[in-house]
Amino acid sequence: MPRVLLIEDDPAVREGVELGLRRRGHDVRSAATGEAGLAALADFRPDLLLLDLMLPGMNGVQVCRRVRQDSQLPIIMLTARGDDFDMIVGLEAGADDYIVKPARPDVIEARIRAVLRRIEVNVTDRPAVETHGDLTVDRAGLTVTKAGQRIALAPSELKLLLHLTAAPDQVFSRQQLLEHVWEHSYHADARLVDACVRRLRHKIEDDSGAPRYVQTLRGFGYRFGPL
C-alpha cells in the first residue's frame, strides 16, 4: 500500500485521517507543521503527500512550492470550505488535486488511488516515443523532453499531456479531462484543469502566454497540436 505523509495542524482531523488510512493498510506518518513535514520527507520517503492548506508558520502553499523545487511527489491539498482563492494558489504551486474538509475516509482513499494511477503507463495505439516539434513524449518511459532537456512533470501534468497527445487535434472539454485525468465528475472542479494547463504550459511552451502546443478553444476546451 502507498506510504502517505500527512501534514495537518488540527489534532482531531490529523488523528481521524491517519486512523482511516491505517485501517486501509497505508503506512502513515503525520506532522503538525510544514517545517516538521518537510523534515519527515527525506527519511520517510512517502508515495504521496496529504497537505493541509492552512498551516501555522509555513503554510501549505509554501510547503508545496518547496517540495516542487526538487520533487514530483504526488500532492493532494486538504482545504476548508471557503478557501477557494488560496486553494487555486495551491494548485498553481503544484498540487495535483484537492479535497474539501471534512471528508470521509473512502473519499480520501479514492482520491489517493486516482492520483497514483496518473503515474501508471498510459497504453494507447500511439507510438511509444513520439516527437512534436522540439517536444518528445516517451509513453513507455513516462518522460518528456524539450530540445533534448528532460522536463520534470507532476503526475497530473504528465497524465494531462499524455491524454492530449494521444489524440492530437481533438478538442477535449474540461469535463472530459476531469473524468479521464482526475477521475472527477464535478463541474466545479474545472479549475483543476485550468490550473494544471497553466503549469504545463509554463514547462513545455517557449511562451506560456502564446502557447504553441496546448491550445485553448474558448467555449469548448483544450487541444494538443503544434502550431
From TrEMBL:
InterPro entries recorded: CheY-like_superfamily, OmpR/PhoB-type_DNA-bd, Sig_transdc_resp-reg_C-effctor, Sig_transdc_resp-reg_receiver, WalR-like, WH-like_DNA-bd_sf
Highest taxon listed in the record's lineage: Bacteria
Annotated region of DNA binding: 127-226
Keywords of the record: DNA-binding, Phosphoprotein, Transcription, Transcription regulation, Two-component regulatory system
PROSITE patterns referenced in this protein's UniProt entry, alphabetically: OMPR_PHOB, RESPONSE_REGULATORY
Domain annotation Response regulatory: ranges: 3-116
Annotated ranges, domain OmpR/PhoB-type: 127-226
UniProt cross-references to SUPFAM superfamilies, sorted A to Z: C-terminal effector domain of the bipartite response regulators (SSF46894), CheY-like (SSF52172)
Gene3D superfamilies: 3.40.50.2300, 6.10.250.690, Winged helix-like DNA-binding domain superfamily/Winged helix DNA-binding domain (1.10.10.10)
Coiled-coil ranges from the UniProt annotation: none
Annotated SMART domains: REC, Trans_reg_C
Modification 4-aspartylphosphate occurs at: 52
PANTHER family: DNA-BINDING DUAL MASTER TRANSCRIPTIONAL REGULATOR RPAA, REGULATOR OF RPOS
This protein's name: Response regulator transcription factor
Species of origin: Streptomyces cremeus
